[in-house]
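Recall from the previous chapter that SMILES is a line notation for molecules. Here it describes zinc ion.
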Amino acid sequence: MLIPTNATTMNLGWLTSASASEARRVILHEFGHALGFIHEHSSPTANIPYDREKVYAYYAQAPNSWDRATVDRNIFLKYSVAETNYSTYDRSSIMHYVVPPELTTNGVGVPFNTELSTIDKQ
Ligand SMILES: [Zn+2]
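With both inputs in hand, we obtain:
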């Protein structure tokens, strides 16, 4: 999709009420997108054993209030190897969504990453 050069492509306006550490985390993540990074849980190499019904229920709650199609697109979609450049799966990436352990079938989640990982920096 082409976006007009005079159109806004990133909105960080809500960060005025965020703590400095939260603002830093969000800016690192959003500038990752600006550089072309996808969400790490959507990597072709990600293999998170989601408990799908628990995930739908979790994201149906506020503040997300996502329907199932939105959860499918934002959480379960994985990019194909043909349409992206990708690294080995990096659970420490700033681009990874937090995954509460109760949303997986093996009880292993992904922490709330707040720093660039080694692979992010590479
Ligand atoms: Zn993102």
